[in-house]
Design a protein that fits this description.
With about 50 residues, this protein is mainly α. It contains two helices and no strands. It is flat, with a radius of gyration of 15 Å.
Length: about 50
């Protein structure tokens, strides 16, 4: 029960944070930053950094 409540609260915080960010940052910039982040994580995982 506690873990379910934690998941709901973290999801709510994430949604509220995303809505606040979207008011100041254009969706195109968010997409580009996300793409760079995914590529960076892929490269790090490929080279077994973690």
């Amino acid at each position: 029960l506690g873990s379910s409540l934690a998941l709901v609260l973290v999801s709510l915080i994430g949604v509220m944070f995303a809505q606040a960010i979207c008011q100041f940052v254009s969706p195109e910039i968010i997409k580009k930053v996300a793409a760079v982040g995914f590529v960076a994580m892929g490269v790090l995982i490929y080279f077994d950094v973690f």
